[in-house]
Amino acid sequence: xxxxxxxxxxxxxxxxxxLVVVPVFVVLDPAAPRGALDDLxxxxxxxxxxxxxxxxxxxxxxxxxGVAALVAAFGRGWLSMTLARxxxxxxRPPAWAVAASMGLLGAGLxxxxxxxxxxxxxxxxxxxxxLLQARYFxxxxxxxxxxxxxxxxxxxxxVQTPAGWVSQYPPAHALWLAAGFxxxxxxxxxxxxxxxxxxxxxxxxxxxLPDRVAAARLGALLAVTSPMLLALAGAYxxxxxxxxxxxxxxxLSLRAETGRAAWALxxxxxxxxxxxxxxxxxxxxxxxxTAGVWLTxxxxxxxxxxPWLLRRFAWWALGGLPFAVGFxxxxxxxxxxxxxxxxxxxxxxxxxxxxxxxxxxxMYGFTQALGYTSTELLSVGxxxxxxxxxxxxxxxxxxxxxxxxxxxxxxxxAWALLPIVASALYWHHDLVFGPRMLGEAVPxxxxxxxxxxxxxxxxxxxxxxxxGIAVLVLIPLVYGLTVGGAERVVRLGGRAALVxxxxxxxxxxxxxxxxxxxxxxxxxxxxPMRLDSVRALLTQYDPCRLEGALVGAQQPEEVVDRCxxxxxxxxxxxxxxxxxxxRGDLPGLGGSGVLWTRDLxxxxxxxxxxxxxGRTPFLVLPDSASAGLVVxxxxxxxxxxxxxxx
Length: 646
Prior knowledge:
single chain, mainly alpha, 4-stranded mixed sheet, 8 strands, globular
């Protein structure tokens, strides 16, 4: 078995090196339409490959190589000895003090990103939907009530069911955010996430790597300062939540290994929270950091090992059982079956893993999996650490060349690499935050990078070579975390939609003007129609043809004027409703504040205004120079829609 595992990790290491060094992303279709996913991932692959290996970073590369050569020539091992002394100093403080400091650092940085860099705003629809679901949870409801006029609020990733209007996402992350809302704001949940990650990364890594405490603590430091993980947490995304609970589950599993089996009960609960946040990655990582710990534990005395294992697995299963039952009940209530996830209810079976036509109508096959994975691995250094270093290749080289991997390194490798397999089998890929489908594994990537850098520098044998390797790693890594990563986070903050200011007191109904295509999509979804069907229609048909079908026109010429009016209404631009709904009164629950809604034109809007007689209507005019201009409703209607036709 050890021989097979050893051969396997070398094959995996070689694959990582090849996928980063060789521009494998060129297998993607070069003739793909501009903006198609193949086109985006191919162009991103070239950008990251050039950033890492090409002339765009030649000056910095030459500078680093020059400094490394000077240190190697004149340092005579001085840097290696200095780093060894620093390592011994890092090991001196007690674990509890380091863990507490790391937790405070993680919580503080996450709070700064959420409230300062992102100003409490969301960057993508995923987060807005989770926050909306969290608001319903915090209000004491499992979901919003079925909407009487869903076309005014229908949005991607929210599902209209007979039992209520609910998020497609598993509920654990929204419950976590709801706790933050109850305590004062979702940023509190974000701070708790990164604080927990800092504490349990230190405690678990130290137990996992008992003879390399300095490396364990440096890995935890990289995790809580990772620009991508901080951005994911600050933007209220669920990847950071899974990463934090994975660190907790790993620590609990290691406690169960050396202490009472009942620790496995809590480990099972932590894994249950992971699975009910992100089912596939939560399951894969959860098994690696719990069952993987016990299955690789030193054997007990003869005749005692099997009962020892069985007790831990029994407690583990018992800890996860409430989450399995609750998740199944939630799915059955809203989506019709305990095994039907919200993703499937929203977008159909094509949302699942495997090679097939995806919910956007695009083919996802082996070629896409190979090309997209190559691009994502190329982006690991720049995305997770903000550095030019080819991090995946460095770790791959270590897996390939290391004489042997110790148990802790194998568990970390499983945590880091299993999400790559899941991502390769999943059709959705994007690089908005970096390789975010690997976000749950960032702590493991951080620890492996530290171990790989130390291992490769020591492999040089000669002090001058070790010094040179250390410089080549340290300069770009420190620069990336302190400058490059910070710049990436600030740029991401520029993506967040500004929030229009409502100055009028009292209950209000604020109409947000979205694009014609979005308005049509909302009306189709309200029929109701599944998300994959809505996307297919919007992709294949002209908006005017769909408009005609929605109003029951028999001939295209019957809606020429209507289409012209709809098109002209977008002349000032368009906004996105999803970014705002979670901030105000919740649809279906009443309230005395701002109720954000979709502008569907004066005739349709009149129905909603009549249904909300206690609210003063306003309309937000799109304005590229600001968050949008909030104006009295009739003024806004006249500006966008012109005179109301008979």
